Amino acid sequence: MNTKKTSPEFDVAIIGSGFAGLCMAIKLKEQGRDNFVILERAQDVGGTWRDNHYPGAACDVPSHLYSFSFAPNPDWSRKYPTQPELYAYLRKIAADYDLLRHIRFDNTLEAAQYDEEHHVWAVRTSQGSLTTRALVMGNGGLAEPKLPEIPGVAQFKGKTFHSSRWDHDYDLSGKRVAVIGTGASAIQLVPEVAKVAGQLDVYQRTPNWIIPRPDRGYSGLEKVLFRRIPASRRLHRNAIYWSHEARVMGLVLHPALMKVFQKVAERHIRKQVRDPALRDQVTPDYTIGCKRILISNDWYPALQKPHVSLVTDGIREIRAHSIVAADGREREIDAIIYSTGFYATENPIAAVVTGRDGKTLADIWQDGEEAYLGTLVNGFPNLFLIVGPNTGLGHSSMVFMIETQASYILRLLGEMEAQVSRTLEVRESVQQGYNARLQARLGNSIWSTGCDSWYKHKSGKITALWPGFTFQFWLRARRFDASDYLFDGVSGDGYVAADEPGRATV
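Below the sequence we write its predicted structure tokens.
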């Protein structure tokens, strides 16, 4: 793409209007920065919580923590928020903060290319083109559904859809349904589908550790207290935060401590599963925490209903009206629901973001995604990621990380102005040093104990998770050393100084 204008149309363009995009927009407005645009591929805000509207969809982080610290909701109905409540919350946020006028809906990102001559990003969407000084990728880490590669998929004549693209117009009542996958979405939707399906076959590749879901509704008195005495709500949120932070002790610092959680999960199986054979099928052979720990009270009961079958033999092929398991048994079905997750690594959007020298994010991430503080990538000036590499969590709320990154980006934009600089990017040596330390810490974590998970790139590198307390990430993002960055235009003759070893720590 060629840009004809030397002055960009916008100071900042934000991709996506979920938690990440809305948070970045709010932070910009708080500083009086109004020349920004939000590009959204759908027709409404909400991101993950707009798209994942399958039956039973809910969050596994408590409501009062999984919400913006600056926009509390005293009226959450339950300890764990449901998809409809989260969707409504985000829509209200967009309206309350006057963000809708900044959003261009039905604008799918097709290409974003850095214009080295004019120091701007040229962005092309399904509805047209624009230029921007800075580009913020708030598209989310779990936004692109991933379908399995199974022989015969194209031959199937029945109904198919991914859990994140649920077709509510298709009536599952009395139907023969196959759910492929037993991850976080499946354990929520399977109990709901089991209520209406005539036959339900659940295809499991690897069992997950599941602990009880300590959910309950908030009483009217609690809501009144949260509304009229804000300190009570803040105290409640802080209690939830620190109880979740404590889990890092087992996940990263002392993995042996996860045995306590494993005993809870094992007891959950013994309590809810009567059949010894089924117990064996649903009991993982890896240490708890290596994969995402799931929470549910109705998954195991659903599997024991007479019309529900758990299939653990794998899938040989899919035919026009059936699925053939690895043991040769053929099961006739009317519909297939893919609960097979997302592109947590190798997100397709990386292939359309091009930095200096014509290299895309996909090009430089062939061996696994990496960034500095999950936010900056050398070779991509004025590009900022939210929920970028190694910012995911196995223990707490991503909203905390999103707020931290948005504040960090705001700080960087301010530093560019203070330096009278057209561009900013992290030094290559700083990015490399940071990630070397980060991967060393991940190497001692529970996530590197041998199991396969969506936390890992196909190279084996753990690219999704932050290996520590969230407050450590917050503290690291608050520190600023100008020598860690490259500024253009300070002296009027190119980048400041030569690249030198950085002092970045994790």
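Residues 10-45+99-143+344-426+470-488 form a domain with the FAD/NAD(P)-binding domain fold (CATH 3.50.50.60).
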